[in-house]
Amino acid sequence: MSRLDRSLISGLPLFQGLTADNLDRVVGKARSQRVPKGQAIFEQDAEAHAFFLLLDGHVRVVKSTPEGQDVIVRYISPGELIGIARALGRTTYPASAVAAVDCIVLAWPSALWSEFAATFPAFGAHTYKTVGSRLQDAHTLVVEMSTEQVDQRVAHALLKLIAQSGKKTDDGVLIDFPISRQDIAEMTGTTLHTVSRLMTAWEEKGLVRSGRQKVAVTDPRRLRQIAEAHAGKE
Amino acid sequence: MSRLDRSLISGLPLFQGLTADNLDRVVGKARSQRVPKGQAIFEQDAEAHAFFLLLDGHVRVVKSTPEGQDVIVRYISPGELIGIARALGRTTYPASAVAAVDCIVLAWPSALWSEFAATFPAFGAHTYKTVGSRLQDAHTLVVEMSTEQVDQRVAHALLKLIAQSGKKTDDGVLIDFPISRQDIAEMTGTTLHTVSRLMTAWEEKGLVRSGRQKVAVTDPRRLRQIAEAHAGKE
DNA sequence: CGTCCATTTGATCAGGGTCAAGACGAGTGG
DNA sequence: CCACTCGTCTTGACCCTGATCAAATGGACG
To answer: Whole-angstrom Cα distance, residue B31 to residue B52?
Structure first.
């Protein structure tokens, strides 16, 4: 394994304001890890021995019910922390984190979190801000799940995905990692069948272009119309 | 208005470890406020000028959609903080807080939050733990909304309510504040009609006793069976 | 070339939303 | 003290969205 370098993390807002020396100390305590596509970084209900920083790739956070149904709570992009359960007073992970593509993560023992937070104010502040916005997101999702029809929820999900991980191509804005109908269904509380029907309908109208584990949005404007109100249906 | 006394807050875990002197300082900066039933403590999207501690009463946190539908995100019990948006990097309140009964709250200007957190470590730590568990709750709710049938969601909602604000009576465990069918519908993403039908069905089976803005659970065990699995339906 | 998985598409049907009407109390004003 | 009104709750009838069941198609990859 190659030696870890502070340049890996020096650009991140999370570590803003740290000296080169401090960055070295932080990186020095991390273990880097390659996680192949489909593998879990950590599992729901397991002991939260570490927290992670996603350096490269995309991760989905999944909660599973006792009955075996999965719900995708959110996707994680490079530069974000995951597995900070411990920082919030939990001893186990409340969800699983699965690599959507091959990923690179840095891992620190959970115990270090409070040390980092105490030593580097920006680190603590940024984390709490992150948690705060995740709480907002979760509440927004609850509202969507409570009040919207399936087509609106799927439209919203796609818009969030391209906002977070969109990549411009000739086909429009492409979601930058493999995502199946099943995945979208698990984000929106519906079935892969319904998602499939929606996608083909939207494809015919020219709103999206999609294929096997691939979705691109060609007309975000009209997709947003579907997401926003049900008045705009035709 | 009577003089504020440190005894109001001395028992709370939030202020654990503060000296009598410190408690006086904290209370001294607060303004106490009586909020009549039905009135808002703060409104969604308004400037977050203050954060609040609920001393007495019950508050529901409501998010409203642009289309005018309301979703009840959670209920707040005495001793809990509300309106801590500012602490999480927001400048406006993400939801409204409405008094479910006549309430007493303490209010501090938002700017004081960071001062308190810096000066009294227990205060900051407790808040973040609170935010963490609210994030958990929100995710749990998302999972429930995604995977459960209406009867399960309503059963879960009632169980949470009696766990949080249950009061033992001859009729079973009573929810300690007025709550309508409409309220329960807004917690569970359904309509008051469906809630009404469920309640009468459960009343006939002897699971609950309910009336106008009043719900008591007489058989939590069987209610939990409904909430848990759909295998147990008959 | 064969196997596996993602996807598509059709047919069916039920959970629960919508529409409509009424009953039941609780508070208000005469 | 009673009549009235308003808000909550109940209940029936109907129908639509989207789940379920079933099967076929089509790439991707070994």
So the answer is: 9
Is B138 within a domain?
no
Is beta strand B81-82 parallel, antiparallel or unpaired with respect to B50-56? antiparallel
Q: What is the CATH number of the domain that holds A74?
A: 2.60.120.10
Q: In whole angstroms, how far apart are CA A124 and each of A88, A109, A120, A121?
A: 12, 16, 7, 5
For residue A136, give how far its alpha carbon lies from the nearest alpha carbon of chain B (Å): 7
pLDDT, mean of residues A90-108: 96
Count the neighbouring beta carbons within 10 Å of the beta carbon of residue B62: 19
The residue range of the domain holding A111 is 6-123
Co-location of A167 and A109 in the same domain:
no
* Total of domains in chain B: 2
Give the bases of strand C that a protein CB approaches within 7 Å: 6-11, 15-20, 25-26
Q: If you measure CA to C1', which residue is closest to nucleotide D19? A: A191
Please report the pLDDT score of residue B85 as a whole number.
Answer: 83
Q: What percentage of chain A has pLDDT greater than the value 90?
A: 84
The pLDDT, as a whole number, for residue A230 is 63
Q: Cα–Cα distance between A44 and A96 in angstroms, integer?
A: 4
The pLDDT, as a whole number, for residue B233 is 36
CATH code for the domain in which residue A165 is found: 1.10.10.10
Residue B77: inside a domain, yes or no? yes
Instruction: Name the band, by pLDDT with cuts 50, 70 and 90, for residue B231.
Output: very low
Examine the domain organization and report whether B19 and B129 are in the same domain. yes
| Interchain CB contact of B132 with A (< 8 Å) | yes
Nearest to B69 among A63, A133, A147 (CB): A147
Task: Name the minimum distance, in Å, from the CA of A161 to any CA of chain B.
Answer: 18
Whether residue A198 sits in one domain with residue A93: no
**A-B interface: how many C-beta pairs under 8 angstroms?**
111
A40 occurs within a structural domain? yes
Q: Which of B217, B218, B214 is nearest to B100 (CA)?
A: B214
pLDDT digits (tens, 9 = 90+) for B162-198: 999 999 999 899 999 999 999 999 999 999 999 999 9
Structure confidence at residue B202 (pLDDT)? 97
Same domain, A28 and A99: yes
* Residue B163 sits at the chain A interface (C-beta within 8 Å): no
Q: What is the pLDDT of residue A232?
A: 37
* List of E strands, A100-148: 103-109
